[in-house]
From TrEMBL:
This is CCHC-type domain-containing protein. Keywords: Metal-binding, Zinc, Zinc-finger. Residues 197-207 have a biased composition (Polar residues). It comes from the Eukaryota. The keyword DNA damage does not apply. SUPFAM superfamilies: Acid proteases, Retrovirus zinc finger-like domains.
Amino acid sequence: MPPRREPDHPAPTQATVVAQFRDYHAEKFSGQGDPRIVDEWIQGLEFIFEVMDCPDRYRVICAQLQLTGDARLWWNAYWSMRPGEKAGCTWEMLKELIREKYYPTYYRAEMERQFLLLQQGTRTVNEYEREFTRLAAFVSDLVRTEAQRAQRFIDGLYPAVRHNIVGHGTQTYARAVSISQEVDANIRREAVRDHPQSSALAQSSSVPPMPALPSVQPSKNNKRKGKGAPTDKRTRQRLQQIPQCPTCGRLHRGECRFGQDVCYYCHEPGHFANRCPKKAQQPQQPPQQQQPRQQAQRPPQQQQQRGRQQARVYAVDQAEAEQQPCTMSGMVVLNNVPVFALFDTEATHSFISRRCLDAIRVHAVTAVDPLEVSLASGRKIVTSAKASDLSLSIGGRVLSTDAFVLEMRDFDLILGMDWLSFYHADIRCHDREITLYLPGDESITFFGSRNHSLPH
């Protein structure tokens, strides 16, 4: 028995396609209003065409039926000056013509600038991908191929997400998006599971914390409570020699000023230690007394100098950091935003990327003395932009820091020796631990990552 032959379906005619299209009640376009309406209109039509399985040769006919007012006048005038060419107009050509006409030059330039600067930041990958797709429509020359589009998407991902993707080899755009979504979701689940602060942040913000925070162990060193003791033997031996204060219950030496409205730095009333006017005149370590918990601990300001200050930093990306003998990376919370930080004993100062400043919504100011920074390559960069009084949350404590602005590819924040030495940081590279010692003999142990990528 011969195989059954399916009946041939006649090709749709223009009349049937147009009639079917009208049933979807597509939006009209007049060319008036916000330029963003152009993309919304085009995307709405493309959705209908996909549902209809509309042949390309009929898409232009259907689209021009939706032009009204000034847009219809322009369309008719454009083709009246090009007799005989309209029949060759494709859907892609129509979209390009519409965009050239109704996206002002300044608007197109701004969209291109936003695309080139686009980073995931604190967005989810889904949010980042939507913005990437929207802006890519303005820079088709930069993402002509699948490989170009995928690479540009990967370049803008958050470092902790990007580093989990690059090991997968060459990516298509769809594959890059799929893997990054999975990595992003895993990181956020770990943040909620492993770090209470991160979970609280997720509940208080429309943007989930990004990314997961390494574990941090605060140590209040209060024998009366019998918990929170430091993990390393040297710290325990040090604390056993410090008496417990009968006034505040903490471990410290000397007079207790807990509850007194005085500066813990100069012991005078009227201000707190972080605003002490004597710090600039006579920099020194503040007395070992416990400040109120809500007061951010901060390193003293460096003495004002004339001319450029000399500085060095040898690791501004992952590859350079891996060459340093004792660096450690991990997530910290800066101004309530999780950021990727490098703890670097080879850096003389602390630095912050401009991308990070935008994420935490802080504006840099011009420093009194610019900083001349020597890089590992031998190149020198002069920076005078500085962010002050940043709130760094580690282990439930708020520590203050200042940082000069420096462009970095893989890190948001570099905490150098100016910050590490103030907190008498005890860095144990092999164990991936940093212990910070605060006034009042309180300590915090931070567990980071030696390989400079977020733990899986």
